[in-house]
Design a protein that fits this description.
Blueprint lengths: L2 H12 L14 H18 L1 H11 L4 H21 L4 H8 L4 H10 L6 H6 L2 H13 L3 H8 L4 H8 L5 H8 L5 H9 L3 H13 L1 H12 L3 H14 L3 H8 L10 H5 L1
Helix pairs in contact: 1-2, 3-4, 4-5, 4-6, 6-8, 9-11, 11-13, 12-14, 13-14, 13-15
Length: 259
Amino acid sequence: MDRPTELRRLARLLHRDTDALDYLAPLDAAHLMQLRRLLQEAFIERFAGTFKRLAAGGRLIPDALNAKLCTGVFGPALTANLSYFTPIDQAVRLAKHFDDDFLTDTARHQVPERAQALLAALPVEIMRGVTRKLLAAQEFAIMGGFTDYLPEDKALVLVKEIHGPAERLRVSAYAQRKDRIARIMAQLDDDAVAAQIAAAAAEPELMHEVVLTLAEMPAPEQQRMARISDRVDPALRGALKAQLAADPIAPRMSAYFEA
Protein backbone atom coordinates (compact mmCIF):
# COMPACT_ATOMS: atom_id res chain seq x y z
CA MET A 1 0.00 0.00 0.00
CA ASP A 2 1.38 3.37 -1.04
CA ARG A 3 1.30 6.08 1.64
CA PRO A 4 1.48 9.14 -0.69
CA THR A 5 -1.52 7.80 -2.62
CA GLU A 6 -3.56 7.41 0.55
CA LEU A 7 -2.47 10.83 1.82
CA ARG A 8 -3.65 12.43 -1.43
CA ARG A 9 -7.02 10.70 -1.12
CA LEU A 10 -7.46 11.84 2.47
CA ALA A 11 -6.41 15.40 1.60
CA ARG A 12 -8.98 15.49 -1.18
CA LEU A 13 -11.71 14.30 1.20
CA LEU A 14 -10.79 17.02 3.71
CA HIS A 15 -10.38 19.71 1.03
CA ARG A 16 -6.80 20.30 2.15
CA ASP A 17 -3.37 20.26 0.56
CA THR A 18 -1.22 17.31 1.56
CA ASP A 19 1.23 19.73 3.23
CA ALA A 20 -1.54 20.71 5.65
CA LEU A 21 -1.65 17.10 6.89
CA ASP A 22 1.95 16.96 8.12
CA TYR A 23 0.65 16.27 11.62
CA LEU A 24 -0.44 12.83 10.33
CA ALA A 25 3.17 11.86 9.58
CA PRO A 26 3.19 9.09 12.25
CA LEU A 27 0.38 7.27 10.42
CA ASP A 28 1.29 4.71 7.77
CA ALA A 29 -0.76 4.04 4.63
CA ALA A 30 -3.06 1.50 6.30
CA HIS A 31 -3.90 3.87 9.15
CA LEU A 32 -4.49 6.75 6.75
CA MET A 33 -6.91 4.54 4.82
CA GLN A 34 -8.64 3.58 8.05
CA LEU A 35 -9.01 7.24 8.99
CA ARG A 36 -10.41 8.12 5.56
CA ARG A 37 -12.92 5.28 5.71
CA LEU A 38 -14.03 6.26 9.21
CA LEU A 39 -14.68 9.81 8.06
CA GLN A 40 -16.58 8.66 4.99
CA GLU A 41 -18.65 6.11 6.87
CA ALA A 42 -19.48 8.35 9.85
CA PHE A 43 -21.98 10.47 7.93
CA ILE A 44 -23.56 7.51 6.14
CA GLU A 45 -24.02 5.51 9.32
CA ARG A 46 -25.43 8.48 11.19
CA PHE A 47 -28.26 8.87 8.68
CA ALA A 48 -28.51 5.26 7.53
CA GLY A 49 -32.03 4.88 8.92
CA THR A 50 -33.28 7.86 6.93
CA PHE A 51 -31.54 6.70 3.78
CA LYS A 52 -33.06 3.22 4.12
CA ARG A 53 -36.58 4.58 4.54
CA LEU A 54 -36.27 6.89 1.55
CA ALA A 55 -34.83 4.10 -0.59
CA ALA A 56 -37.63 1.75 0.48
CA GLY A 57 -40.21 4.36 -0.50
CA GLY A 58 -38.61 4.62 -3.92
CA ARG A 59 -39.43 0.98 -4.59
CA LEU A 60 -43.14 1.78 -4.50
CA ILE A 61 -43.19 4.28 -7.36
CA PRO A 62 -42.30 4.02 -11.07
CA ASP A 63 -38.64 4.45 -11.98
CA ALA A 64 -39.33 7.54 -14.11
CA LEU A 65 -41.00 9.33 -11.20
CA ASN A 66 -38.31 8.18 -8.79
CA ALA A 67 -35.66 9.55 -11.14
CA LYS A 68 -37.46 12.91 -11.27
CA LEU A 69 -37.47 13.04 -7.48
CA CYS A 70 -33.73 12.40 -7.47
CA THR A 71 -32.91 15.10 -10.01
CA GLY A 72 -35.52 17.65 -8.95
CA VAL A 73 -35.80 17.20 -5.19
CA PHE A 74 -33.10 15.03 -3.64
CA GLY A 75 -30.10 16.23 -5.67
CA PRO A 76 -26.85 14.34 -6.35
CA ALA A 77 -25.52 14.13 -2.78
CA LEU A 78 -28.64 12.49 -1.35
CA THR A 79 -29.02 10.33 -4.46
CA ALA A 80 -25.47 9.05 -3.93
CA ASN A 81 -26.26 8.06 -0.35
CA LEU A 82 -29.56 6.45 -1.32
CA SER A 83 -27.74 4.33 -3.91
CA TYR A 84 -26.11 2.26 -1.15
CA PHE A 85 -29.55 1.18 0.10
CA THR A 86 -31.27 0.74 -3.26
CA PRO A 87 -31.45 -2.72 -4.90
CA ILE A 88 -28.79 -2.91 -7.61
CA ASP A 89 -31.20 -3.69 -10.45
CA GLN A 90 -33.32 -0.67 -9.54
CA ALA A 91 -30.26 1.57 -9.21
CA VAL A 92 -29.15 0.58 -12.71
CA ARG A 93 -32.61 1.31 -14.13
CA LEU A 94 -32.62 4.72 -12.44
CA ALA A 95 -29.15 5.54 -13.78
CA LYS A 96 -30.50 5.13 -17.30
CA HIS A 97 -32.93 8.02 -16.61
CA PHE A 98 -30.15 10.42 -15.55
CA ASP A 99 -28.09 12.57 -17.89
CA ASP A 100 -24.29 12.60 -17.76
CA ASP A 101 -24.18 15.81 -15.72
CA PHE A 102 -26.35 14.43 -12.91
CA LEU A 103 -24.54 11.06 -12.94
CA THR A 104 -21.20 12.86 -12.70
CA ASP A 105 -22.34 15.04 -9.80
CA THR A 106 -23.65 11.92 -8.05
CA ALA A 107 -20.32 10.13 -8.57
CA ARG A 108 -18.55 13.04 -6.86
CA HIS A 109 -20.46 12.20 -3.66
CA GLN A 110 -20.16 8.41 -3.78
CA VAL A 111 -17.83 6.30 -1.68
CA PRO A 112 -16.29 3.83 -4.18
CA GLU A 113 -15.97 1.07 -1.59
CA ARG A 114 -19.72 1.20 -0.99
CA ALA A 115 -20.57 1.47 -4.68
CA GLN A 116 -18.62 -1.62 -5.79
CA ALA A 117 -21.65 -3.78 -6.58
CA LEU A 118 -23.27 -0.95 -8.53
CA LEU A 119 -20.06 -0.35 -10.48
CA ALA A 120 -20.05 -4.00 -11.49
CA ALA A 121 -23.65 -3.81 -12.71
CA LEU A 122 -23.71 -0.47 -14.52
CA PRO A 123 -23.34 -0.64 -18.33
CA VAL A 124 -19.96 0.66 -19.41
CA GLU A 125 -21.65 3.03 -21.87
CA ILE A 126 -23.16 4.94 -18.94
CA MET A 127 -19.71 5.12 -17.36
CA ARG A 128 -18.11 6.52 -20.50
CA GLY A 129 -20.06 9.76 -20.22
CA VAL A 130 -19.19 10.15 -16.56
CA THR A 131 -15.52 9.45 -17.28
CA ARG A 132 -15.43 12.16 -19.93
CA LYS A 133 -17.10 14.69 -17.63
CA LEU A 134 -14.76 13.94 -14.72
CA LEU A 135 -11.76 14.11 -17.02
CA ALA A 136 -12.85 17.47 -18.43
CA ALA A 137 -13.14 18.76 -14.86
CA GLN A 138 -9.75 17.21 -13.95
CA GLU A 139 -11.36 15.22 -11.15
CA PHE A 140 -8.43 12.80 -11.00
CA ALA A 141 -9.01 11.91 -7.34
CA ILE A 142 -12.53 10.66 -8.00
CA MET A 143 -11.46 8.74 -11.08
CA GLY A 144 -8.56 7.09 -9.26
CA GLY A 145 -10.76 6.10 -6.34
CA PHE A 146 -13.24 4.38 -8.62
CA THR A 147 -10.45 2.63 -10.54
CA ASP A 148 -9.72 0.52 -7.45
CA TYR A 149 -13.25 -0.91 -7.43
CA LEU A 150 -14.28 -1.11 -11.08
CA PRO A 151 -14.21 -4.53 -12.74
CA GLU A 152 -10.92 -4.60 -14.62
CA ASP A 153 -12.51 -5.12 -18.03
CA LYS A 154 -14.54 -1.95 -17.55
CA ALA A 155 -11.54 -0.09 -16.15
CA LEU A 156 -9.54 -0.88 -19.30
CA VAL A 157 -12.35 0.41 -21.54
CA LEU A 158 -12.61 3.62 -19.52
CA VAL A 159 -8.85 4.19 -19.34
CA LYS A 160 -8.86 4.33 -23.13
CA GLU A 161 -11.18 7.34 -22.82
CA ILE A 162 -8.26 9.17 -21.19
CA HIS A 163 -6.21 10.17 -24.19
CA GLY A 164 -3.63 12.29 -22.38
CA PRO A 165 -0.77 10.12 -21.02
CA ALA A 166 -0.05 12.54 -18.16
CA GLU A 167 -3.72 12.49 -17.22
CA ARG A 168 -3.64 8.69 -16.98
CA LEU A 169 -0.76 8.96 -14.55
CA ARG A 170 -2.58 11.59 -12.49
CA VAL A 171 -5.57 9.25 -12.20
CA SER A 172 -3.32 6.38 -11.09
CA ALA A 173 -1.84 8.68 -8.43
CA TYR A 174 -5.17 8.34 -6.60
CA ALA A 175 -5.56 4.59 -7.18
CA GLN A 176 -4.27 2.42 -4.36
CA ARG A 177 -4.39 -0.85 -6.30
CA LYS A 178 -1.19 -0.44 -8.29
CA ASP A 179 -1.36 -4.12 -9.25
CA ARG A 180 -4.55 -3.37 -11.18
CA ILE A 181 -2.95 -0.31 -12.77
CA ALA A 182 -0.06 -2.56 -13.83
CA ARG A 183 -2.38 -5.08 -15.48
CA ILE A 184 -4.24 -2.29 -17.27
CA MET A 185 -0.99 -0.66 -18.42
CA ALA A 186 0.25 -4.03 -19.71
CA GLN A 187 -2.76 -4.23 -22.03
CA LEU A 188 -1.98 -0.88 -23.68
CA ASP A 189 -0.07 -0.91 -26.96
CA ASP A 190 3.59 0.07 -27.13
CA ASP A 191 2.90 3.58 -28.39
CA ALA A 192 0.49 4.31 -25.52
CA VAL A 193 2.99 3.00 -22.96
CA ALA A 194 5.79 5.03 -24.55
CA ALA A 195 3.65 8.15 -24.29
CA GLN A 196 3.09 7.54 -20.56
CA ILE A 197 6.79 7.00 -19.91
CA ALA A 198 7.64 10.14 -21.89
CA ALA A 199 5.07 12.11 -19.89
CA ALA A 200 6.60 10.88 -16.64
CA ALA A 201 10.09 11.78 -17.84
CA ALA A 202 8.89 15.29 -18.64
CA GLU A 203 7.19 15.72 -15.24
CA PRO A 204 9.34 14.01 -12.59
CA GLU A 205 6.55 13.94 -9.99
CA LEU A 206 4.71 11.53 -12.30
CA MET A 207 7.66 9.12 -12.49
CA HIS A 208 6.77 7.86 -9.01
CA GLU A 209 3.58 6.40 -10.49
CA VAL A 210 5.50 4.64 -13.25
CA VAL A 211 7.87 3.15 -10.67
CA LEU A 212 5.04 1.87 -8.48
CA THR A 213 3.35 0.36 -11.52
CA LEU A 214 6.50 -1.30 -12.87
CA ALA A 215 7.17 -2.88 -9.48
CA GLU A 216 3.84 -4.73 -9.71
CA MET A 217 4.56 -6.25 -13.12
CA PRO A 218 5.91 -9.76 -13.71
CA ALA A 219 9.37 -10.09 -15.27
CA PRO A 220 8.22 -10.48 -18.92
CA GLU A 221 6.19 -7.28 -18.72
CA GLN A 222 9.05 -5.42 -17.01
CA GLN A 223 11.32 -6.49 -19.86
CA ARG A 224 8.79 -5.16 -22.38
CA MET A 225 8.63 -1.87 -20.45
CA ALA A 226 12.45 -1.73 -20.54
CA ARG A 227 12.45 -1.97 -24.33
CA ILE A 228 9.82 0.76 -24.58
CA SER A 229 11.73 2.95 -22.09
CA ASP A 230 14.85 2.67 -24.25
CA ARG A 231 12.82 3.87 -27.22
CA VAL A 232 11.80 6.94 -25.25
CA ASP A 233 15.24 7.68 -23.77
CA PRO A 234 18.17 5.22 -23.74
CA ALA A 235 19.53 6.88 -20.58
CA LEU A 236 16.27 6.67 -18.62
CA ARG A 237 16.69 3.24 -17.04
CA GLY A 238 20.22 3.95 -15.89
CA ALA A 239 19.21 7.25 -14.33
CA LEU A 240 16.23 5.65 -12.63
CA LYS A 241 18.33 2.77 -11.29
CA ALA A 242 20.80 5.24 -9.75
CA GLN A 243 17.98 7.30 -8.29
CA LEU A 244 16.38 4.23 -6.67
CA ALA A 245 19.61 2.57 -5.54
CA ALA A 246 18.73 2.85 -1.84
CA ASP A 247 14.98 2.48 -2.29
CA PRO A 248 13.46 -0.85 -1.11
CA ILE A 249 11.33 -0.93 -4.26
CA ALA A 250 14.40 -1.33 -6.52
CA PRO A 251 14.76 -5.15 -6.14
CA ARG A 252 11.17 -5.56 -7.33
CA MET A 253 12.17 -3.84 -10.59
CA SER A 254 15.23 -5.99 -11.29
CA ALA A 255 13.86 -7.43 -14.53
CA TYR A 256 13.29 -3.90 -15.82
CA PHE A 257 16.77 -2.71 -14.90
CA GLU A 258 18.60 -5.82 -16.12
CA ALA A 259 16.77 -6.32 -19.46
